[in-house]
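@channel sequence for tomorrow's demo:
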Amino acid sequence: MLITFEGLDYSGKSTQVKMLSDRITMQGNRVLLLREPGGTEIGEKIRKILLDKENISLTDASELFLFSESRSQLVKEVIVPALEGMMTVICDRYFDSTTAYQGYGRKIDLAAIEAINKFAVDGLEPDLTFFLDIPIREIEKRIARAKAKRDRMESNDISFYERVRGGYLQIAKSHSRYRVLDGLKSIDDLHDEIWQEFDRLTSKP
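structure tokens (generated this afternoon):
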């Protein structure tokens, strides 16, 4: 199955991705852990372009197509073969990120993005998606505590991230595969909730 994690940067999703992957592996199952953009030779090159702060002239449309190109390569080259090999694939971001960031955040036409998303992944949708939801102000605090340098995608203003967060919540309302989690909970509590949902899905006859 394909499991995806979504959320704003510093929401804690990457930590939860790793914890779920490790626990599934400990049970003797084969897991493939991926991140977006990237995961292939071409995808990693695209990632550098997208995150480089020097590329401030990158247009919104170019950004949209670069993310989609990286994802298309990842699906065809890595995800589909892994699923066909009966592996559990866990992906840190997938096409919902494009809808939230480029659609709601950049205000690109949502119908156009939906068409591009479907074409890029050849219709491959996740079986389960976790969205770690945290207030924008908390993200600012976490970045300050980490004393982290912001990449190009992390350098947007608060209003942009508010639109992205609102977009994710709208997406969640429209898809039964979504599980919205309180990202302010402790790491262990979040993992327990994620595991329960994963276990419930995999235990279905």
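heads up for whoever presents: The longest strand covers residues 2-7.
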